[in-house]
Amino acid sequence: TKRGEVISFDLRQRKVRHTVKAHEKNIKTIALSPGDTYLATGGLDGDVKVWDVQQMNLHSTFLGLHPAHKSLGGAALVSTYGVTGTFFTHDYLYSCGADGRVVRVAYHA
């Protein structure tokens, strides 16, 4: 959400299962791991976090992977922030950010 929350919803029972404050700023991207065991969130704060899907417990935190980036946009200084994409493979989590980098980190199930 725009408040940095992740809301887990049970479609069969039509009710909210979990609400967690994942990031201080907006969440820009989410990804599910193979087997749907973990959820990665990436936010404007530049952090990537990995959550256990069943209980929505924090599994791993990767702080500041994609910090603020400033550049000239015409006559003005333009700031871009945070994580813009996340993707899981069986052994790695990839993230890309407004800083123009792609970062690979290992995560362990």
Structure description:
- The chain is mainly β.
- The protein is built from no helices and eleven strands.
- It has strands at 5-10, 15-21, 27-32, 38-43, 48-52, 58-62, 69-73, 76-80, 83-88, 92-97, 102-106.
- A hairpin with a 3-residue loop joins strand 9 and strand 10.
- It is globular, with a radius of gyration of 15 Å.
Features:
mainly beta, single chain, four-stranded antiparallel beta sheet, 109 residues
Q: Tell me the series of helices and strands, N- to C-terminal.
A: EEEEEEEEEEE
Assembly annotation: single chain
Helical content (DSSP H or I, runs of 4+):
under 10%
Approximate shape: globular
Question: Count of DSSP E strands?
Answer: 11
Brief account:
This protein has 109 residues and is mainly beta. Helix content is 0%, strand content 57%.
How does the SSE layout of this entry go?
Elements: E1 5-10, E2 15-21, E3 27-32, E4 38-43, E5 48-52, E6 58-62, E7 69-73, E8 76-80, E9 83-88, E10 92-97, E11 102-106
Antiparallel strand pairs: 1-2, 3-4, 4-5, 5-6, 7-8, 9-10, 10-11
